[in-house]
Amino acid sequence: MNAALSLFLQVLPLALGAAMSPTFLAMQIVVLTSPAPGALRRGWALAAGSMSMLLLISFGGVSLLSAIPQLHTDGPTWTQAVIMAVAGVALLFVARQVKRRPRGHKDSILEKLVDAKPPFIFAAGAARLATNASTLALYIPALHIITSSTVDDIAKGLAFLLLFLLTELAVLGPVVAVTIAGEGAKPVLTRIHDRIDEYSKPVTVLTCAGFGVALLGLAAWTVFQLV
Question: Which CA distances in Å does 29 have to 7, 32, 227?
Fold first, then answer.
């Protein structure tokens, strides 16, 4: 299989998992459907905050991963095994915590975003991304796969762009839709928000638990190949 295609196929599932962020989707929809003036401007502030923080984490992650010595130059590495194992445990922990939340649990940040100013919304987007364990637990392993790949820089850049945009899909998709379609997109977003309230908990639990088990399985397989 072509090395670049193989890289995309490895990154895509993790990127899609990182994109499953009901909390970020709910935050963006609350901002965009708010009756307060300047909803679109505030929606872009939320997206900008999230993307800015993800870029910072990306550059920091690349620098850190590049500084880690690799015990094996070909095939799986111990670094890969450790990253996948830690990410898998983190996802299972998040799944457990979300499952234990009482029925009807509401995120306190949502009410604050309804009529907040763009600087506050920008900061809220950055802070929520930085503390979103389920997203980062999938994003960092995917970032490691890209940085440790032997493909050329163009393929790596395209793979990173795919990972970045899919990870930001929950916050970027709604604001792009409103920018293009205008007010006509808001009723659709409102219906989506209603479904989020109903299904966000099981979706988050299943996504985190499924990817957590998968990453632990990949970590075990990587160790098996190394020993």
Answer: 33, 5, 48
Q: Which two tokens stand for residue 87?
A: 């990410």
Using alpha carbons, select from 125, 128, 105 the residue that is nearest to residue 116: 125
The pLDDT tens digits of the residues spanning 199-220 come to 778 888 998 999 999 999 988 9
Rounded to two decimals, the pTM is 0.87
Mean pLDDT of the chain: 86
Are 78 and 226 in contact, with CB atoms under 8 Å apart? yes
Does residue 70 contact residue 77 with C-beta atoms inside 8 Å? yes
Burial 103-129 (b: 16+ CB within 10 A, else e): eeeeeeeeeebeebebeebbebbbebb
Helices 22-32 and 186-226, packing angle to 10 deg: 160
